[in-house]
């Protein structure tokens, strides 16, 4: 339903020539644009048809359906391979040709070396040099098309898998969705889909590696003999060893993924509830929760890194070890000199094998392992149980809209939520359903809309249904789009619906009216506004049947009456309407009312028939309770003057609307990744000393490897020189009669009687040379092993510390940060970016450092052999830097756009999960799937352009390297005599030079990947530097046992949510006496919630606030918030045990907890659960009703028992029974406390000691209710006069003392009622096993040094006795 305009930019790839495709010139225009300006997603090319998300998802879905039909154990990995098998084989042919060409390079070099030893003529050497040059150029031309195809195929797999995951979300049942958190699903979209993508990159090397191995073995055997095959013994041991290593890697990877899922799940829960966590000052237990999970995840990541370090050591030193083993066998068995041509020939082939079988094959195996693990995880998700979406039959009676016949349903086995339900609703009827909390009302509506599964009985319906959920659901789009919900915009219809839903004046007060952008979860709207927008959405749908799940609870009494009158009874009078409501007095117009209790229909009839028998016990007064927040601006009660005042009142909202879009846009960094990001990461774990130590180890390892190869070159030259000398001696001895002057000089120290056959051609100092070589190889192996382990442990340390900073920073920042940043964007740092930091950055960084060291050696060694090689490096280096500067700015922006383009996908998926029932009942699955595809295509613009730009750069870099290689090769041949080059030197030069050619462009690609992955570090570092609240830092410490009385004083207090926004509280000054009960009233924007925000310092106020004479603005926030208690409007529960939800610090005894539970009338319900206090609560408390969750929040307050209690419309969404329990408990348990209450129902606050009336952030009235009601100019009087006569009379009677509020009167005691039994849905969502964590003083001080020791938290004996 997103209104964003997606611009279509035709991709030049569709119409370009073959030459432009091969050279990637078709992307030149984008590179030019990237040099001129900062690129945006709209600047990039739209994906070609075969890369579009809708096409790819549809194709994979067909394959997946076929897989499920063919196999009893469907495999997504098998499906993906079968889907892209043909394309992968064709792509592998390019690799096979490329690798075959590379095999001939060592053969050509060995032939060329024979020229330097005088065995062949220059002309022959030039021919083979030309062939070698041609191979180099062909290699360049084949390499980049292969990798672009691999990237593209991997991208397609990721897109298709993401599309399948999203489509699956739309089909999952509510019960299944409860078992799979939003964090888990986002992890599938971010981490696992990416691993599936990477699985395609090296896949062909699984085939080409073994083929190349067979070819090399054959050539070595034919050319050198069996001796030089000995190095393959090592390879034959290493390959199975790697398989064993990778089996361990697979096991650790699976466990690591599981822990990562658990961490993201908990983080999702924490971020969604961060406001209440801050108010409760619960940062410590939740920090410990996340830290424990992160440590478990890093434990497996450490094991993974150790496996990687072992693999890296083998890959790095394998060529040297194979050469060493071959030379050892050669010395022991060959009995011939060790000449350079043989060494270069064998080493050249071994380096090819190490590259193809060692590096590429191993990387392919790792990628495939990750591919299989992630494909298994995604496949398991795709196989999860879906909602049965079979068509619902039409009732046999044409007059019936809905018929339910003997419906039975339970969320958990043997615990029925609905029993023997029989309901008939005629077309056009208005029917109501009432009943206590937990009686199954919402479950019944879910059954009607088809959201229940595994039920017995029959459900019939005739007509299109629209269902309004109990919790209003809005999404990030304009208000218009939230209402039209994908239907065409018809102005007359829209305006009429806005009017009947009491939204007209609200829209007039918003700067952009109906085009106002709704923030994530509607943060810029009040609860009542969200509810009325959802109501308008229902009306706009033109359904035949409307189901309202307690829609009236979020609006005030006046608006509730208007909705009943204008909306339900007038606008929808021809429609079938079913309403769940706790406001029984509004249901007189219902044709029939069903009383639901304990999952059964206890009674049914008209309002008058049931009034005395059943309805009376469901409401404490007859037509006397005002409900909802005072947030509407009702047209017929607002004159022009008042309207102008209200326009002034909403100035802050106007400005907020003007800024919200800009503020909530994700920051796109410019230019290169800042050095502060590199410094922050590389010094996070061990500081600069650790960084210097790792760099030294890399240099030392490369130096030792080069030393071994260099000594081998010197040794082979010595062997060849000795052989030539001995051959000359032998020749002279054999031809003594015809000696010339040279022979005389050669035999000067030789006995002429020496037998020529006794002349030994083997170097006489071979043993010493071998020992030196052995020492260098062993030293190199040890240093490489130490370097590998040190590097990977260094990265684990850095990741751990960086993540700790990230979490601490996000946890400790102000609530304003969460106002401006969607949860999906924040989670992207904790999922995708953290995974990049833990895994991908470590691997690519190691590869880059290793390749960079080899390149360094590859430059130093040839130049040391032939210093003239510096000359061509100068111009070629200049051209390289020109190309690099032309490329790098665009590549950086494309990668950043890639990262930014991912976030909307995660936000969209998260929003869909929250509103899944509304989406399905409105049949919007297809539209949302299309929009998800569009968002995916927009992201594809960036990632595909990034791939192409990298190939563009790589191709040009390879041409430069080819040119340098050709110049060096021919220069060495033509300048042989001038430079006096020896065969061993040239052999070493050529081996390193060709190695340089293959690695130079790879190093740039690796560095580009490293730099792009560093954008994840940059994004993390950005969040580590956000301002923190003074959680632990205060200028003063409060007195012991503060506060003792609960007196509150405001001294010219002002508050604004942001420096760019106007004040929502304006110089408020007041005094609230100790133990006083104060009600707070006022309309939306009056400053009611802001008043509480100021006390909790959720936003830092200006002025001074005193509690018992202590200026709370000078205290640390922990010292302040631990001394305050709040019961929020929307109850928040966390996954874990009931005990954990009541007492996360583990401070209270079972006796104290049971006392709190009993005080809120939940003792019998909790005792009836299998595990009592240790019973599991699912994420968000989805296995409890809203009323039950609110009672648990009240039990928290009783346990905490502070001197100040703040109630923020805590009874807004509960029935009268629950409201009565809450009000009665508050009056009994907090009679000696100062209680501040935002009014939800005027009757609940009109008996307060005083009432505070706010308007426009200022105090208008503050006095005794009786006096305020006698003042016709007071806000309380104004609010009261809008009520019905009966409601108004009740309010005045209570205020005048003529009637006492006794909300518990005539209420069925819940303790004796099984209706409070929790509807414990069968859920397998992750639950952190913590039955009241025990914290030591050290653990608490680790998180918060300002907190007192645990002993200070305990309850004294006298207080305990007083309670019990």
UniProtKB/TrEMBL annotation:
Domain of life the protein comes from: Eukaryota
Subcellular location: Membrane
Taxonomic source organism: Brachionus plicatilis (Marine rotifer)
Annotated ranges, domain ABC transmembrane type-1: 89-325, 692-1012
Boundaries of every ABC transporter domain copy: 402-623, 1048-1281
Residue stretches spanning the membrane: 88-116, 122-142, 202-222, 228-246, 303-324, 330-353, 688-712, 772-796, 841-863, 869-887, 957-975, 987-1010
Family: Belongs to the ABC transporter superfamily. ABCC family. Conjugate transporter (TC 3.A.1.208) subfamily.
One cellular component (GO) term of this entry: membrane
GO terms for MF: ABC-type transporter activity; ATP binding; ATP hydrolysis activity
Primary residence: membrane
Listed InterPro entries: AAA+_ATPase (IPR003593), ABC1_TM_dom (IPR011527), ABC1_TM_sf (IPR036640), ABC_transporter-like_ATP-bd (IPR003439), ABC_transporter-like_CS (IPR017871), ABC_transporter_C-like (IPR050173), ABCC_6TM_D1 (IPR044746), P-loop_NTPase (IPR027417)
Membrane topology, as annotated: Multi-pass membrane protein
Assigned keywords, A-Z: ATP-binding, Membrane, Nucleotide-binding, Repeat, Transmembrane, Transmembrane helix, Transport
Designated name of the protein: ATP-binding cassette transporter subfamily C member 4 X1
Keyword ATP-binding: yes
């Amino acid at each position: 339903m997103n209104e964003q305009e997606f611009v279509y930019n035709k991709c030049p790839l569709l119409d370009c020539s073959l030459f432009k495709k091969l050279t990637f010139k078709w992307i030149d225009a984008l590179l030019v644009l990237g040099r001129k300006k900062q690129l945006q997603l709209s600047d990039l090319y739209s994906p070609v048809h075969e890369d579009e998300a809708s096409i790819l998802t549809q194709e994979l879905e067909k394959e997946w359906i076929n897989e499920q039909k063919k196999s009893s154990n469907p495999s997504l990995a098998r499906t993906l391979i079968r889907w892209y098998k043909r394309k992968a084989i064709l792509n592998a042919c390019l690799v096979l040709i490329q690798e075959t060409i590379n095999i001939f390079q060592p053969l050509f070099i060995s032939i060329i070396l024979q020229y330097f030893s005088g065995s062949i003529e220059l002309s022959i050497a030039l021919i083979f040099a030309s062939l070698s040059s041609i191979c180099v150029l062909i290699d360049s031309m084949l390499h980049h098309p292969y990798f672009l195809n691999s990237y593209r195929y991997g991208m397609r797999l990721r897109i298709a898998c993401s599309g399948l995951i999203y489509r699956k979300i739309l089909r999952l049942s509510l019960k299944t969705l409860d078992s799979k958190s939003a964090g888990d699903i986002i992890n599938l979209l971010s981490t696992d889909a990416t691993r599936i993508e990477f699985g395609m990159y090296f896949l062909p090397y699984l085939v080409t590696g073994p083929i190349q191995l067979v070819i090399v073995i054959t050539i070595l055997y034919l050319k050198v003999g069996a001796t030089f095959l000995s190095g393959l013994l090592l390879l034959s041991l290493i390959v199975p060893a790697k398989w064993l290593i990778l089996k361990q890697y697979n096991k650790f990877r699976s466990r690591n993924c599981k822990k990562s899922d658990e961490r993201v799940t908990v983080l999702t829960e924490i971020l969604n509830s961060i406001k209440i966590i801050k108010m409760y000052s619960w940062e410590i237990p939740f920090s410990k929760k996340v830290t424990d999970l992160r440590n478990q995840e890093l434990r497996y990541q450490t094991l993974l890194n150790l496996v990687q370090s072992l693999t890296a050591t083998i890959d790095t030193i394998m060529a040297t070890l194979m050469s060493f083993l071959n030379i050892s066998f050669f010395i022991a068995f060959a009995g011939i000199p060790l000449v350079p041509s043989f060494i270069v020939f064998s080493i050249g082939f071994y380096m090819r094998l190490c590259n193809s079988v060692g590096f590429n094959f191993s990387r392919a195996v790792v990628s495939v392992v990750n591919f299989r693990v992630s494909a298994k995880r995604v496949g398991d998700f795709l196989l999860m149980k879906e909602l049965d979406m079979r068509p619902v039959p039409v009732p046999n009676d044409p007059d019936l809209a809905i018929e339910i016949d003997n419906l039975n349903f339970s969320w958990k086995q043997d615990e029925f939520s609905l029993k023997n339900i029989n309901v008939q609703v005629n077309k056009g009827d208005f029917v109501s359903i009432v009943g206590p909390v937990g009686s199954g009302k919402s479950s019944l509506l879910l059954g009607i809309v088809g959201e229940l599964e595994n039920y017995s009985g029959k459900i019939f319906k005739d007509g299109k249904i629209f269902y309004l959920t109990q919790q209003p659901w809005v999404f990030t789009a304009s208000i218009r789009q939230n209402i039209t919900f994908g239907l065409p915009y018809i102005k007359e219809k829209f305006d009429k619906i806005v009017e009947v839903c009491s939204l007209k004046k609200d829209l007039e007060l918003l700067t952009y009216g109906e085009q106002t952008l709704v923030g994530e979860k509607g943060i810029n709207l009040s609860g009542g506004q969200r509810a009325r927008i959802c109501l308008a959405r229902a009306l706009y749908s033109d359904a035949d049947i409307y189901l309202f799940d307690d829609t009236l609870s979020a609006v005030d009494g006046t608006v509730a009456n208007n909705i009943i009158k204008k909306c339900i009874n007038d606008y929808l009078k021809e429609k079938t309407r079913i309403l769940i409501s706790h406001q029984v007095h509004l249901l007189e117009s219902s044709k029939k009312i069903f009383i639901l209790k304990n999952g059964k229909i206890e009674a049914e009839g008209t309002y008058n028939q049931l009034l005395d028998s059943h309805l009376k016990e469901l409401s404490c007064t007859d037509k006397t309770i005002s409900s909802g927040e005072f947030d509407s601006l009702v047209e017929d009660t607002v004159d022009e003057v008042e309207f102008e005042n209200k326009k002034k009142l909403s100035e802050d909202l106007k400005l907020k609307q003007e800024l919200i879009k800009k503020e909530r846009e994700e920051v796109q960094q410019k230019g290169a990744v800042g050095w502060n990001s590199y410094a922050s990461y590389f010094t996070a774990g061990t500081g600069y000393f650790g960084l210097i130590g790792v760099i030294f180890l890399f240099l030392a390892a490369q130096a030792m490897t080069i030393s071994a190869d260099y000594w081998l070159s010197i040794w082979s030259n010595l062997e060849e020189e000795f052989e030539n000398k001995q051959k000359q001696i032998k020749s002279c001895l054999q031809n003594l009669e015809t000696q010339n002057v040279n022979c005389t000089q050669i035999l000067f120290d030789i006995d002429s009687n020496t037998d020529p056959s006794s002349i030994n051609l083997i170097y006489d100092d071979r043993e010493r040379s071998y020992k030196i070589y052995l020492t260098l190889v062993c030293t190199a192996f040890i240093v490489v092993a130490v370097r590998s382990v040190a590097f990977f442990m260094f990265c684990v340390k850095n990741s751990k510390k960086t993540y700790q900073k990230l979490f601490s920073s996000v946890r400790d920042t102000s609530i304003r940060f969460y106002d401006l940043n969607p949860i999906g964007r924040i989670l992207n740092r904790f999922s995708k970016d953290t995974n990049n930091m833990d895994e991908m950055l470590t691997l690519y960084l190691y590869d880059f450092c290793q390749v960079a060291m080899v390149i360094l050696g590859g430059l130093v060694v040839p130049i040391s052999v032939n210093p003239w090689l510096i000359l061509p490096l100068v111009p070629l280096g200049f051209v390289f830097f020109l190309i690099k500067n032309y490329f790098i700015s665009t590549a950086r922006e494309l990668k950043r756009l890639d990262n930014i383009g991912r976030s909307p996908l995660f936000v969209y998926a998260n929003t869909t999960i929250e509103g899944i029932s509304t989406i399905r009942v409105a049949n919007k699955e297809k539209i949302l799937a299309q929009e998800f595809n569009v968002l995916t295509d927009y992201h594809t613009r960036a990632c595909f352009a990034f791939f192409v730009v990298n190939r563009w750069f790589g191709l040009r870099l390879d041409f430069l390297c080819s040119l340098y290689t050709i110049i060096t090769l021919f220069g060495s041949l033509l300048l042989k005599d001038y430079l006096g080059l020896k065969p061993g030197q040239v052999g070493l030069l050529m081996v390193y030079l060709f190695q340089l050619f293959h690695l130079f462009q790879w190093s740039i690609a690796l560095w580009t990947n490293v730099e792009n992955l560093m954008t994840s570090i940059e994004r993390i570092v950005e969040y580590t530097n956000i301002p923190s609240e003074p959680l632990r830092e205060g200028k003063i410490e409060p007195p012991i046992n503060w506060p003792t009385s609960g007196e509150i004083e405001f001294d010219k207090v002002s508050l604004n949510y942001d420096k760019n926004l106007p004040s929502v509280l304006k110089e408020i000054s007041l005094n609230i006496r100790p133990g006083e009960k104060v009600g707070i009233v006022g309309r939306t924007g009056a400053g009611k919630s802001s008043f509480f925000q100021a006390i909790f310092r959720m936003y830092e106020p200006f002025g001074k606030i005193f509690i018992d004479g202590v200026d709370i603005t000078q205290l640390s926030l922990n010292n302040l918030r631990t001394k305050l208690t709040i019961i929020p409007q929307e109850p928040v529960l966390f996954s874990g045990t009931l005990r954990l939800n009541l007492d996360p610090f583990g401070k209270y005894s079972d006796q104290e907890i049971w006392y709190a539970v009993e005080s809120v009338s939940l003792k019998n319900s909790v005792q009836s659960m299998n595990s009592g206090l240790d019973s599991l609560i699912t994420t968000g408390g989805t296995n409890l009703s809203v009323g039950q969750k609110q009672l648990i929040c009240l039990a928290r307050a009783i346990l905490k028992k502070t001197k100040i209690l703040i109630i923020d419309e805590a009874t807004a969404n509960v029935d009268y029974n629950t409201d009565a329990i809450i009000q009665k408990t508050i009056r009994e348990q907090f009679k000696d406390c100062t209680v501040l209450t935002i009014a939800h129902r005027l009757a609940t606050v009109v008996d307060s000691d005083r009432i505070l009336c706010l308007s426009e952030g200022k105090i208008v009235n503050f006095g005794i209710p009786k006096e305020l009601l006698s003042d016709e100019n007071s806000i309380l009087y104004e609010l009261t006069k809008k009520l019905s006569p009966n409601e108004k009379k009740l309010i005045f009677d209570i205020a005048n003392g003529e009637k006492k509020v006794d909300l518990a009167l005539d209420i069925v005691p819940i303790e004796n009622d099984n209706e409070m039994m929790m509807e414990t849905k069968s859920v397998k969502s992750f639950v952190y096993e913590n039955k009241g964590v025990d914290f030591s003083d050290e653990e608490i001080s680790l998180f918060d040094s300002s907190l007192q020791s645990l002993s200070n938290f305990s309850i004294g004996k006298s207080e305990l006795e007083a309670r019990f």
